[in-house]
């Protein structure tokens, strides 16, 4: 007979246990926010984060793709695919840098701005839900307190 209780992973050091808990918390937050954004807006967490990085950038809604990759964070090749999807959906557009033709920029469109503004409330509510759920788990409590500024 299979037990419904999952065994706890006991890593050898406190640092390993803490880092593992952070990874589990991150996965839980991603799952919760992903489901909410997909259900309400038809976009992924990564798409939302890219649009938010563009919308709230201090450079007028555009970023060099390398900077966008670092802000999400994603590998450069993954950002190229992501931006291609956002371009096809009319949420962003790419252009070459005037002074350095090798530099590729991504600009958020008006449609992308509207989507990120409406999706932001969904994202924040899902984030609050994920943190509230995690707050009662002893593995995550310290990390949740850090995120909420209660340390």
Word description of this protein:
With 151 residues, the protein is mainly alpha-helical. Helices cover 62% and strands 9% of the residues. Strands 1-3-2 form a three-stranded antiparallel beta sheet. Helix 2 (45-55) packs across helix 5 (110-135) and helix 5 (110-135) packs across helix 6 (141-148). The longest helix has 28 residues, at 14-41. It is elongated.
Offer a few descriptive terms.
9% strand; 151 residues; mainly alpha; three-stranded antiparallel β-sheet; 3 strands
Structural class by SSE content:
mainly alpha
H/E topology pattern = HHEHHEEHH
Q: How many strand segments?
A: 3
User: What's the helical proportion of residues?
Assistant: 55-70%
Distance between the termini: 43 Å
| Uncertain parts | none
Order of strands across the biggest sheet?
1-3-2
Task: Work out the radius of gyration.
Answer: 19 Å
Largest sheet: 3 strands, antiparallel
Overall body shape: elongated
Beta-strand proportion? 5-15%
Please tally the helical runs, counting DSSP H or I stretches of 4 or more residues. Answer: 6
Mean pLDDT: 89
In short:
The protein has six helices and three strands, in the order ααβααββαα.
List the helices and strands and how they pair.
Layout: H1 14-41, H2 45-55, E1 62-64, H3 65-71, H4 76-88, E2 92-96, E3 104-108, H5 110-135, H6 141-148
Antiparallel strand pairs: 1-3, 2-3
């Amino acid at each position: 007979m299979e037990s419904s209780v999952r065994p706890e992973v006991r890593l050898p050091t406190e640092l390993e246990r803490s880092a593992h808990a952070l990874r589990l918390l991150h996965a839980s937050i991603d799952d919760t926010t992903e489901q909410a954004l997909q259900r309400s807006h038809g976009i992924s967490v990564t798409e939302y984060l890219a649009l938010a990085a563009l919308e709230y950038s201090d450079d007028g809604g555009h970023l060099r793709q390398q900077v966008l990759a670092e802000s999400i964070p994603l590998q450069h090749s993954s950002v190229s695919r992501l931006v291609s999807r956002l371009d096809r959906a009319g949420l962003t557009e790419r252009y070459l840098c005037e002074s350095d033709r090798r530099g590729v920029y991504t600009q958020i469109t008006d449609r992308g701005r509207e989507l990120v503004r409406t999706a932001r409330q969904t994202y924040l509510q899902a984030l609050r839900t994920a943190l509230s759920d995690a707050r009662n788990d002893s593995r995550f409590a310290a990390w949740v307190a850090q995120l909420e500024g209660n340390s």
